[in-house]
Amino acid sequence: MDYASIYPCIGLTVRGRIGQWWIHKEYKTYKVVTKYYVPTNPQTALQQAWRQVLSDAVTNWQGFDVPTKQFYNSKITPKYMSGYNRYLRLYLNANYPPALGVLLLETGDRILLETGDGILL
């Protein structure tokens, strides 16, 4: 059934964001309209530490020469991974848990450890 010939407004094809209200998604067999949502970014010490570890891993990969990259690309397991993803997985597992370091707050306090909702000063 062709809705465009019956209801011209419904037949209108929209994809993407409309303002900051709705997001129109089109898949192969159906369309979805969802509410626009901006996730929070709390930027905790643990989150920042993981971001630094990931940044270091990407920087290392970009600095590798071609034979080193081919080494990771030629590994067999897991079969579905590229060499880049395989290296990142190995790097992140080797650096678990990330070093939080010492962070200074605006008040001059030092954060030594962050646990769940609490921070040990």
Biggest β-sheet description: 3 strands, antiparallel
Series of secondary-structure elements, N-terminal to C-terminal: HEEEHHHEEEE
Shape: flat
SS-derived structural category = alpha+beta
Estimate the helix proportion, in percent: 25-40%
> With helices defined by DSSP (H or I, 4 residues minimum), what is the helix count?
4
Q: Trace the largest sheet across and list its strands.
A: 1-2-3
Radius of gyration: 23 Å
Total domain modules: 2
Low-confidence stretches: 1-8
Mean pLDDT: 75
- Strand-residue proportion: 15-25%
In total, how many beta strands?
A: 7
What distance separates the N and C termini?
65 Å
Which descriptors apply to this entry?
single chain, 2 domains, two-stranded antiparallel ribbon, 4 helices, 7 strands, 36% helix, disordered N terminus
Written overview of the protein:
With about 120 residues, this protein is α+β, with helices and mostly antiparallel strands. The protein has two domains: about 5-35, no CATH class; about 45-120, no CATH class. It contains four helices and seven strands; from the N terminus they run αβββαααββββ. The strands form three sheets. Strands 1-2-3 form a three-stranded antiparallel beta sheet, with no helix packed on it. It has a two-stranded antiparallel sheet with strand order 4-5. The chain has a two-stranded antiparallel ribbon with strand order 6-7. It is flat. About 0% of the residues are buried. The model is unreliable at about 1-10 (pLDDT under 50).
